[in-house]
Structure formats: structure tokens, C-alpha cells
Design goal:
single chain, mainly alpha, 145 residues
């Protein structure tokens, strides 16, 4: 049923992102706006409202959690891509890079333990939120932007 629901979401997305309706550019816009103001905002949930509006319009199935699950997955994937890019830039700036590698491995274990045991949606939200926080932390530590 979920596969069919996903296929129903395919088509022309409402935003510049993927077929989920999530726009990954919203992440950069939030981070840029926060930096302009001299602070790091909590950008974890950015883009979710537009994604949920889009998903609820497109999805006609009987699973009430599908739009949220779809948008959390799309948001998490966008944050993971951002984390990978920021981590690579931080590694290049680190001298030596090994402490950063150890920190990142420890953080992954921390994130998994923190989010373990939650229900599907709560776990997805937890992982997404912790990934967003790690992006902000790495950006601050490496003075990236």
C-alpha cells in the first residue's frame, strides 16, 4: 500500500525538491538567515509545512501517517546530504582530522541510542532533528558557511 501511495505522490513537485514536495533549499535558506542574524536557529523542521501541504493534497490512501512519514524521510535525506557536505568540509579544514572522525563516530552512536525505542514517526523526527543539530554544530566548529 505504501508503495502505491508513493507512486501517487510522483509527478511534478510543488517545490524545487524531490517528488515528496520537500525543498532542500529551505535548509540553506534557514541556515543563511540564522547566520545573517548572528545566531544558529533550529532549522530542523524547516520545509515541513510546505511538504505536508503538498503530500496531503497528493496522497489519497488510508494511512493517516503517510504524509508525515514521507516528509520526515525527505527532510532527513536532505539533512543527511547537508551533513555529508559539511562534514567533508570540516575534515578538510581540520588539522589533524582524526579527532573529528572520532567525534563523528561517537555522535552517530549517540544519535542512534537517543532515538532508539521511539515509535516510527518519533524516531524519524528524532534522527532528523539530531542530524540538523549536528550540521549546525559542525558548521560552528569549523567556521563553515
Amino acid at each position: 500500500m505504501r508503495a502505491l501511495a508513493f507512486l501517487l505522490l510522483l509527478g511534478t513537485p510543488a517545490l524545487a525538491g524531490d517528488a515528496s514536495g520537500f525543498d532542500p533549499a529551505a535548509i540553506d535558506q534557514c541556515l543563511d538567515a540564522a547566520e545573517t542574524q548572528g545566531a544558529r536557529a533550529d532549522c530542523a523542521g524547516t520545509g515541513m509545512d510546505a511538504c505536508l501541504d503538498y503530500a496531503r493534497q497528493k496522497y489519497t490512501g488510508d494511512d493517516p501517517d503517510f504524509p508525515m512519514a514521507n516528509c520526515l524521510d525527505a527532510s532527513h535525506q536532505a539533512w543527511e546530504a547537508k551533513l555529508t557536505a559539511v562534514y567533508q568540509a570540516a575534515l578538510e579544514a581540520a588539522d589533524p582530522p582524526e579527532p573529528l572522525r572520532r567525534m563523528e563516530r561517537s555522535w552517530i552512536a549517540f544519535r542512534e541510542a537517543l532515538c532508539e525505542g521511539a515509535g516510527d514517526l518519533a524516531r524519524a523526527r528524532c534522527i532528523r532533528d539530531e542530524t540538523a543539530r549536528q550540521v549546525a554544530l559542525l558548521m560552528s566548529l569549523a567556521d563553515l558557511r
